[in-house]
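User: Here's a structure from my thesis project, written as structure tokens. My advisor, Dr. K., wants to see whether a designed sequence matches the one we expressed. Can you design one independently, without my sequence as a hint?
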């Protein structure tokens, strides 16, 4: 089928990107899902710094590549052998597909899946296939998702079913920001109840880390940013103290708290 997708053909072009326009909306060919794969229709996608890192070339990836890696979508068709999602279901698309069998997966760390990471570096789906092309030439998948498209074929192992009572637009951030921010607190930091936590920077990842710290029972939880609107939101979400990093007394205020 023909789809529209935001394709990057050259990285490292001159900023500002509003002038150099590194992404092009192209009509490209999307092959049907093979075994273990799923055709989805995008509902919402987030723009993440990792997309920017591919555009700038800081994170080299095979080009051309259809970008976007944090999204919610509706399942339209499933390939042979897919049993974790069904047609019509809403799913979050995660930025690392997990095979379920390698050592990180077996240790309960699916975000570090080795075959998943290798497939992402090659611009392939976890199944080893490319399903995007133009005039017979492959277009690479970004993190197995390529969310800046109206439709995508992804590995079923990139899909996490989302409960119907969650707004699918909000569910899009589960695919990267939430699992990065909450994962940093719960898995890497192993924050325990009663521990103090400090979150610096309240973007999607930082606000997710804040929620992860609160859910872990951390107290106090201090939130730092330079934007008052972010600080207000952090306070609303339950931060014990919010501090504007522009405040010359910021460090003292946190130490004294
Ligand atoms: Zn991301
Ligand atoms: Zn794995």
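Assistant: Designed independently from the structure alone:
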């Amino acid at each position: 089928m023909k789809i529209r997708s935001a394709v990057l053909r050259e990285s490292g072009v001159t900023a500002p990107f509003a002038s150099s326009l590194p992404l092009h909306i192209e009509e490209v060919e999307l092959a049907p899902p093979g075994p273990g794969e799923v055709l989805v229709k995008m509902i919402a996608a987030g723009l993440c710094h990792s997309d920017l890192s591919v555009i700038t070339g800081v994170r080299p990836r095979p080009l051309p590549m259809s970008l976007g890696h944090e999204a919610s979508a509706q399942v339209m068709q499933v390939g042979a052998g897919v049993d974790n999602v069904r047609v019509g279901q809403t799913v979050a698309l995660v930025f690392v597909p997990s095979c379920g069998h390698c050592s990180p997966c077996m240790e309960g760390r699916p975000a570090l899946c080795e075959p998943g990471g290798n497939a992402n570096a090659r611009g392939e789906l976890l199944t080893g296939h490319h399903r995007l092309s133009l005039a017979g030439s492959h277009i690479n998948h970004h993190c197995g998702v390529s969310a800046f498209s109206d439709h995508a074929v992804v590995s079923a192992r990139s899909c996490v079913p989302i409960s119907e009572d969650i707004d699918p637009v909000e569910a899009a951030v589960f695919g990267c920001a939430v699992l990065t921010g909450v994962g940093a607190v719960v898995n890497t930091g192993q924050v325990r109840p009663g521990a103090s936590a400090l979150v610096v920077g309240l973007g999607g990842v930082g606000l997710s880390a804040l929620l992860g710290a609160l859910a872990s029972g951390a107290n106090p939880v201090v939130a730092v940013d330079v934007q008052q609107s972010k600080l207000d939101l952090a306070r609303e979400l339950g931060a014990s103290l919010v501090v504007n990093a522009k405040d010359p007394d910021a460090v003292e205020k946190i130490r004294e708290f």
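When you compare it with your expressed construct, this may help: The two ends are 58 Å apart (CA to CA).
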